[in-house]
Amino acid sequence: MQVAMGEQPPAGVIVAARALRDQDRPDLAAALLEREADLSDLKADLLYLRLLVDLDDHAALQAALQRSIQRLPERAALAPGYVRLLCRQALRACDESWLELLLRKTWKSCKADPQLLAAHRALGRRILVRTRMRASALPRASLISMGMNCMPWDIPSQWGLRGAEDFCALRTPFDSGANKLPLVLETLETDFAAYCTLDVLRSVETGGGHLTPMRKDVRAVWNHHSSGYWICDDFRRLRENMAAKVQAFRHGCRREDAVFVISHVNLDYPARPLDFLDRLNGGLERFTGSPRNRLVFINEYAAAAATTWVDDQTLILDRPFPRADYVWYDEATTDSAEGLQYEQELAEAIMAALSLWGLTSACEAAPAPLAVPA
């Protein structure tokens, strides 16, 4: 069924936008809400924010999150889904001033709901740690995700190591999907020539009925681009999206403070040599101009926690998950006490490396104490 785009009452606009989304047109749905909906209506705003996430439109999402936080009513009861989305996305996209405002405005909705209370306390802890770390030393590094999953993007962003100003600027092709190391090495060596071209692409239908784009050799899966919107017209939108991220990667690599973060690689160092390290640095040299680059490897496969410097530019953080069934991208897991401790220790280890590399600077003024609701 095609949805008319004419004048509609507020509830009708939301229904029409949802129908457009279900037709794999999140772009038209978002445009309809921008044009005709009252986004101070929380149902309309929730749908709009979700559409921006689906569209991978980080600039629009960052601006929309700030508007949403600004106009949140102080004492209103908010829908659980709305609170969770704001907390999760704002941690990646907003600085501490916006996060503290969000923390205060969502307290009433969270304190009576055990699940929301856990999310609220997790937000408060992340803000507190971010504020304390930045009170002693400000990170002055461009943390660039090299895959192999989304962790190198998520954790530095949520714990304040990557500033809100880089929420858009440092998005790269490797930060929002699952990539395998041999593909990353080949991609760097060939300047992305065949990374996401039509001849290497296919789609697969997930158990939930969503179409997900992937490479035919199964060495990259773009699970954050799951819908017909990204598949249609010979994957045109996916290819355009990746091309834009390649350009962002090029610009990020030219920054003097670039640090490359890589996770989900089973290293087993020093029992096994890092045979790929020269290839990785050689591939990066095309983009950075340097034969040696700052590298941080997060090894979740390790048997025990350890911090190992391979050389003065290469750090391995062996950080096994707290338990065998730990799911690093599940909010119920990451917002638990053990999940927060795991992420915090990882963020602090990266911060320590930045300090050793001279990529921090003294805070100009101590921040005001953060009042976190008990």
Explained architecture:
β4 and β5 form a beta hairpin. With 374 residues, the protein is α/β, with parallel strands linked by helices. The protein folds into two domains: 127 residues, Serine Threonine Protein Phosphatase 5, Tetratricopeptide repeat (Alpha Horseshoe), CATH 1.25.40; 198 residues, no CATH class. The protein has a five-stranded mixed sheet with strand order 2-7-8-10-9, with helices on both faces. Strands 1-11 form a two-stranded antiparallel sheet. A two-stranded antiparallel sheet has the order 3-6. The chain has 15 helices and eleven strands. The protein is globular. Helices cover 50% and strands 12% of the residues. α5 runs antiparallel to α6.
Average pLDDT confidence is 92
Count helical runs. Answer: 15
The outline comes out as globular
Spatial strand arrangement across the major sheet = 2-7-8-10-9
Return the string of H and E elements. Answer: HHHHHHHHEEHHEHEEEHEHEEEHHE
Tally of discrete structural domains: 2
Low-confidence region ranges = 1-7
Proportion in helices: 40-55%
* Count of DSSP strands: 11
Biggest pleated-sheet summary: 5 strands, mixed
Give the termini separation: 50 Å
